[in-house]
Please model this.
Amino acid sequence: MQGHKDASTFIKSFTGSHHFVLDYLVEEVLQQQSEGVQTFLLRTSILDRLCGSLCDAVLLNASASGQETLEYLGHANLFIVPLDNERRWYRYHHLFAELLRQRLRQSAALGDEGKSADKLHMRASAWYEANGLEVEAFHHAVAAHNVDHAARLVEGEGMPLFFRGVVAPVLRWLESLPATVLNARPSLWVMYGSALLFASQLTGVEEKLQAAESALQGVELDAKTRDLIGHIASIRATLAVAFQQLETIVVQSRRALEYLHPDNLPVRTAMKWTLGFAYQLQGDRAAARQAYTEAISISQAIGHFIITVMATIGLGNIQESENQLYDAAETYRRVLQLLGDQPLPVACEAHLGLARIYYEWNDLVTAQQHMQQGIQLARQLENTDRVVSSELFSARLQLAQGNVTNAAAILAKVDQIVRQQNFVMQMPEVAAAQVLTLLRQGNVAAAADLIRTHELPISQARVYLAQGDASAALAVLDPLRQQVEAKRWEDKRLKVMLLQAVAHHAQGEIDKAVELLGDALALAAPGGFVRVFVDEGLPMAQLLSEVAARGFMPDYMGKLLSVFEVEEQKPENKSELTPTQSLIEPLSQRELEVLQLIAQGLSNHEISERLFLALSTVKGHNQKIFDKLQVQRRTEAIARARELGLL
Model:
């Protein structure tokens, strides 16, 4: 404020971008320092954080040590902020740092070799690499425009950075490179395709792989080139996993293993995972479990983060299919722990697995929470059917809550998505869910029509039972049980045995039905199954009462029958259960926060300040809230929210 008579007016007009700020920093701070300190400030401005030895490496032969200069700057209050209690690491105030970088760019034009920003960045990169900080080393190599050095750091001496979860910065760098640079280094095209795959941006992957193959034409087929060809095949195998293309997974995985260098453990381990997924699709769960277990063991030993996550998800799927629900839940939780607070979209698989398990344990609230998180993450995936799986579970949850109409609406939407996207693998699951919903609606004829277009033996048996033809149901179920027992499909075996018990009970064969149900209960008890019994409705309740009367597993029977008592109180199509149950698509936690602030009368600008969100983000939340509540304006949203008990 020096030199201003009217200080109050100056303060009111003053903004962070005011040119007086820069003038002050240049004239009153920078130019008042000695030449040595000015040089230190300018050259270290390229660093996001500073320590003594790093500054020494960047400046080379400075007159004073970096640590001494940092301590001087701290004592002089020269816009430097300590980052730890030991005062080893510092950073410049962001405005001061930007000024210094601007001055450095200007001074570099004078031809002073020591001030060249590219050279400074390369010195910083070398220091970070020597100290085991590859990500920071990569950032500075990119800033130095040194493509070869950045590429070497991304490749990571056999363990690429994005295999360890560092995807976004690598992808941004690759996107910035011109095609001529990529064509001169085919390995960069392969890296590009791999990074896109790990970022769940599937549409551009094949294009990058074809560019790599074009760039490799005419190149000598040495060990390095063969390894690159194997890497291309491995990416195609992984891409095929996303679309559940069994034949492509197997062919490309084997091609990858044929060409990959024996020492390329990261990619070879990834192929163990893809083959495990292929075994899972083929129904060979024992082979899948073994492959996933081996992939986890090796990937953990070599620090292959992504494959550790993917193989652990696969192991959870196998445990779940073998009725080992407690083990599976622990495995899925381990995945979420690995992925941390800002998980990759693939975390949707773990959330969906936990949703299914908590549903089976009849903890519908926790199941719904995991389902919502799974849906939000699944929507970040391109061209995959994970959203379909999440929505299918959402419909199942609506049925359990008595909201049959909501379930039917969700399934209609899912059926449309499946047909538009041609998700062939999901069509039988959608049809099976539609059969369940139609039977709950009492529309047996429509359910019977639907199963004619799909091979769904369990659904077929349900329709026969609904038609009162128990013998026809058993004619389907008896051979099906032999098949699933031969394949050791424990989840299918349990469901078939329950329907067999219901069918025998319907025929008056009480002893046979009780015996079958007793065997099923023994299978289900270790996993804590509840909904698999409850979802069969009144016939199962009657049969369980028969078993309970004979004193079989009294604690487990008591638990199941008490849930049936609660279920009897639920009216079908009840519209006032809980707020989230009344919406086809529930509001997220953030949307609920925004809704509360809307109800308090805050403007979009005020909400953005309160929640530290961009104004465009707040407007996006508003639109989603209006869509989900099926309203057009704020007043309608508030009224609808109060009606649903959301406020």
